[in-house]
Design brief:
Elements lengths: L1 H47 L15 E2 L6 E8 L3 H12 L1 H10 L2 E8 L1 H4 L7 H14 L3 H15 L19 H10 L5 H7 L4 H17 L7 E4 L2 E4 L7 H11 L3
Parallel strand pairs: 2-3
Antiparallel strand pairs: 1-3, 2-4, 4-5
Helix pairs in contact: 2-3, 2-6, 5-6, 5-7, 6-7
Length: 259
């Protein structure tokens, strides 16, 4: 009886040890499966998310002013056909030396991201928003972003805005811009003929769509809902009043400076 009891005990011990090993193996397998699922999920999320989701990183150093390694990074998201955006840009252009000195003195890199936000949000009946964004992108491919963009700001003011056209939602709209308009500006800043091909064949359209999609993601993240939108340090805001002067540009800069 004692021998049989011992044999029974050993059998039970064997079963217990087997069950323990089986349970441990099952837990390990579950952990492995869960780990694989998490890794796959993260991989899908990272590959499907828009690039440069963090506004702290420079998207394109061809569209910046100031030292790209500056401590402070100021981002402005704009649409060329947004009159409130062009007021901000015209003020910085008219005070360019003062603006760039402020950037240098306060260790700021200023990045401008051009989109076709108005077109994508059904606020542009004529398609000028998309065409202008494509034109700027084509100029950027020739490393002439600022030359072209600044000349666009000058021309829009000279040809339309100074005459009260396209200055606000309630003002008479700009209606007669053609592809030749953007091509004439390219000629004024000495872009080569490839600009015309780039624009007429919509070679930068996918890039424009990508830029706008990424900008929209950023705007949603910071609860920004209009043009222009700004993200600079603690500052996240949209809009700029057409009656403001250059002092408001520096107010925006000061509001976001890192302490």
């Amino acid at each position: 009886m004692t021998k049989n009891n011992h044999m029974t005990d050993f059998a039970e011990d064997d079963r217990y040890e087997s069950n323990t090993k089986s349970s441990a193996a099952s837990r390990i397998i579950r952990f492995i499966v869960i780990g694989v699922i998490v890794i796959v999920f993260l991989a899908i999320a990272l590959t499907s998310a828009p690039k440069n989701q963090d506004l702290g990183s420079i998207q394109d150093d061809r569209t910046i002013l100031g030292n790209k390694n500056a401590k402070n990074h100021y981002v402005m998201i704009t649409d060329v056909m947004c009159p409130y955006c062009t007021v901000f840009s015209r003020l910085t252009l008219e005070n360019q030396e003062k603006f760039e000195k402020y950037l240098a003195d306060h260790d700021i890199v200023f990045e401008l991201r051009v989109t076709d936000f108005l077109y994508e949000n059904n606020m542009d009946s004529y398609g000028f928003s998309r065409m202008s964004a494509e034109a700027v992108a084509c100029a950027t491919e020739q490393n002439k972003f600022w030359d072209y963009y600044h000349q666009v700001i000058r021309r829009l003011w000279q040809d339309y805005q100074s005459k009260g056209i396209g200055t606000s939602k309630n003002a008479p709209a700009i209606k007669d811009i053609t592809i030749e308009y953007w091509q004439s500006i390219a000629k004024e800043v000495h872009l080569d003929e490839s600009f015309n091909t780039c624009l007429s064949e919509h070679r930068m359209l996918d890039k424009v769509k990508q830029n706008t999609a990424e900008a929209t993601t950023f705007m949603h993240r910071y609860n920004l809902n209009g043009m222009p939108s700004f993200k600079f340090g603690s500052l996240a805001t949209s809009g700029f009043d057409t009656s403001w002067d250059y002092s408001y540009v520096e107010r925006f800069l000061e509001a976001g400076l890192k302490k």
